[in-house]
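WP5 quarterly update. Target: GyrI-like domain-containing protein. Source organism: Spirosoma flavum. Length: 162 aa.
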Amino acid sequence: MTTSQLTISSKAFKIKETETFTGLSFATQATLQTLSRHVPDVANNLYAEATRLGLDITGPIQWIYTGINGDETNEFQLAIVLPISQTGNQSDSFSYQSFPAFRCASYSHTGLWSDFGELYNALFFQLYRDCYQNDGCVREIYSVVDFENPENCVTEVQIGLV
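Structure tokens (predicted):
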């Protein structure tokens, strides 16, 4: 068996400030072990509900993790969010939520989601090496989702900074 370690450029991060946005949101408590329960049903249901309500979608699905620490059994807050331009009629299944701007280290990953464990190890190694501190929030923005050819998936990882 061959193992490989994911490597990223030493200057892979872009430090930036995100913009405030409103989203149609699903919220739950989760662990790293239970995340797969929400793929792809929640995202599909968010898109369907936004369409039913006539909402203007302004961006791709985001998964927002609050209180995550890398421990597979640690429970944290998970929000799966579809950005929209404005709120509308009340949803039967989801809520409207405003997400504040935040300062983050951003990295664009093209490839398999199964690489995320190694990717996060490499990203946090670089984050701490460069003397940054995580604020307990991580966002994943799923710009390209391709279940048939998952190596084509593009995900922006945003690690919140103190």
